[in-house]
Amino acid sequence: MDSNGSIKPSRVIPGPTNPMVTPLLTDHYQFTMAYAYWKANKHQERAVFDLYFRKNPFGGEYTIFAGLEECVRFISNYKISEEEIHFLKDNLPGSCEDGFFDYLRGIDCSDVEVYAIPEGTVVFPKVPLMRIEGPVAVVQLLETPFVNLINYASLVATNAARHRFVAGKSKTLLEFGLRRAQGPDGGVSASKYCYIGGFDGTSNVAAGRLFGIPLRGTHSHAFVSSYMSLGDISDKSLLKKDGSSTCKDFVVLVQNWLNKIKWSNSLCGIFSETNQSELTAFISYALAFPNNFLALVDTYDVMRSGIPNFCAVALALSDLGYKAVGIRLDSGDLAYLSCESRKFFRCIEEEFGLPGFGKMSITASNDLNEETLDALNKQGHEVDAYGIGTYLVTCYAQAALGVVFKLVEIDNHPRIKLSEDVSKVSIPCKKRIYRLYGKETYPLVDIMTRENEPPPKVGQRILCRHPFQESKRAYVVPQHVEELLKCYCDGSSGKKSETLPPLKDIRERCIKQLEQMRCDHMRRLNPTPYKVSVSAKLYDFIHHLWLNEAPVGELQ
Ligand SMILES: Nc1ncnc2c1ncn2[C@@H]1O[C@H](COP(=O)(O)OP(=O)(O)OP(=O)(O)O)[C@@H](O)[C@H]1O
Ligand SMILES: O=P(O)(O)OC[C@H]1O[C@H](OP(=O)(O)OP(=O)(O)O)[C@H](O)[C@@H]1O
Ligand SMILES: O=C(O)c1cccnc1
Ligand SMILES: [Mg+2]
User: Fold this and answer.
1) Where along the sequence do coiled-coil regions lie (predicted)?
2) Among 180, 182, 365, 393, which residue has the most ligand 2 atoms within 8 Å of its CB, making it the best to mutate?
3) Model ipTM?
């Protein structure tokens, strides 16, 4: 790592985060195909594969590309162990010759070139996110793990970005999904990629340690209901924040405040007796964390118990020089309850002359998703932070991104995959991708060209064609041209490869990228599709190859 935390290509790149990511984490057919290539002495033919997806998820018109670092870590450490070779021998047809296993033993991916769009970039359908070039048998073995590593990562990062879009820039977003995620890898991956997508923190301690994501959390209903009465508190003393003296009985101080609130001018009549087990839990938590007091206020009754109890403890803490953090609401009408809680806090601020009390932080949770966040915005609310779990990490609204890995060239021969469904026809050739920016600062169109075409130039008009629809085309005079595919693994070609940036930089890139998109691509309802095009030369070539490969039908 250098001083910015970047991993230099000349240094050792660590293995994948998940130790389950090994050469065997692939489909059986990749090994049988590898054997058939080997048997036909075709295994060393140089193949180019594109990894891309066909449709943006969640009914949107953009996707966040994520998972690249794990792919680079995987192939930089690729080695089939002796024990794995034995397993393969036992599990491939007995007719497989020993020479094949010697070949597998020698594979290390050092001859595989990986070009990719930087992780955290906003990307679009059909555009290769990664271009993988190497011996056909080897690249074929990489298909399944690469698709696996990109699919969920990009899906959940996009989901996070969409939640951020609805919540707004100023809100704190916390990922609380570990318990509901699809297994341990789902949980840890969700924390990593939601952070990239714009979340601020996670409750997942393992993810905090692995990736340095800020750890955040409150407490649960079980903590509140585990206390019975004020008698549960044995040590009632609390040292003042400045260390000058100790309050011998913090419980009495809290009780006095509760009484004052109850009979105050502005709050009189809102509540009578609050729940004493809840009050005990809050006091206990404040004694443990006087600097970080945040209370879950909905266990019994938010306005008649949770909020007054919280305020009494916060005011007592304030007497001793501490500043409470705020509350969490986890049920009921979150718009209404957040507004009522805010009113209560403001009354306290005014009544007792405590500047800042009205701004106490309000966190909301409970089955939140894009729709509920949108509904809260429409109704008006006072929530500062959201804790989001199930809908976010399980990608409840869409289960998979549908990433594919298609052969586009072998031994310098461009290849195409045809389909009845035009959207499924692959775009042949080893390609370069450019993002063209217009007069305003936002991107206008992505254009794919053949590898050896001259790149688009600033100020020079270029024809951008829809890859399959003849009539859809436009001239563009770019004000800025960005080549998207960068070299991450040089395949021993000696080309300069990119460093793997730290997670924070990927997150920042993602946030900046989203900010520069034209807003009609981003809106939730009927967003405008972003244009993805090919050069005139590539267009002609696609259709030439298409005609060449498609058999002519015969009508009878
Ligand atoms: N103001 C609101 N507008 C729209 N949806 C809301 C609003 N407030 C909360 N919600 C959502 O409504 C749902 C309420 O869930 P549910 O009907 O299970 O009640 P609950 O509040 O969880 O009750 P309990 O926890 O007492 O069973 C949650 O998905 C929550 O995110
Ligand atoms: O609601 P999610 O978006 O999944 O966010 C995480 C949830 O997990 C916790 O409670 P849990 O759901 O385990 O219990 P509860 O529903 O009984 O509060 C927390 O209180 C949140 O409600
Ligand atoms: O810290 C929290 O409040 C939390 C963590 C995980 C799930 N639900 C809530
Ligand atoms: Mg819940």
Assistant:
1) none
2) 365
3) 0.97
State the Cα–Cα distance between residues 217 and 231, nearest whole angstrom.
27
**Ligand 2 in contact with 225 (CB < 6 A)?**
no
State the Cα–Cα distance between residues 116 and 159, nearest whole angstrom. Answer: 21
SS3 call for 467: coil
Q: Residue 398 corresponds to which tokens in the numbers above?
A: 């869409």
DSSP 231: G
What's the token pair of residue 340? Answer: 């009522």
- Both tokens of 354, joined, read 């405590």
DSSP label of 171: S
Residue 347 — φ and ψ, nearest 5°? -60, -45
Query: Can you tell me the mean pLDDT for 229-241?
Result: 97
State the distance between the two ends of the chain, measured CA to CA, in whole angstroms: 68
| CA 366 / ligand 4 centre spacing (Å) | 5
Q: Has this prediction a pTM greater than 0.90?
A: yes
Asked if residue 386 is part of any domain, the answer here is no
Rounded Cα gap, residues 291 and 171, in angstroms: 22
- Give me the pLDDT at residue 269, please: 87
Nearest to 140 by CA among 51, 45, 16, 34: 34
Q: What is the dihedral of CA 202, 206, 208, 213, to 10 degrees?
A: -60
Q: Is the CB of 330 under 6 A from ligand 2?
A: yes
Task: From the CA of 368, give the closest atom in ligand 1.
Answer: 31
Question: Where are the strands (E) in 158-199, listed by range?
Answer: 172-175
Which H helix or E strand runs over 336? helix 334-352
For residue 227, pLDDT over 70 is answered with: yes
Q: Tell me, yes or no, whether 318 and 257 share the same domain.
A: yes
Per residue in 172-193, pLDDT (tens digit) is 999 999 999 999 999 999 999 9
- Do the beta carbons of residue 452 and residue 98 sit within 8 Å? no
At residue 415 the predicted structure's pLDDT band, cuts being 50, 70 and 90, is very high
Domain identity same for 404 and 542: yes
CATH code where residue 356 lies: 3.20.20
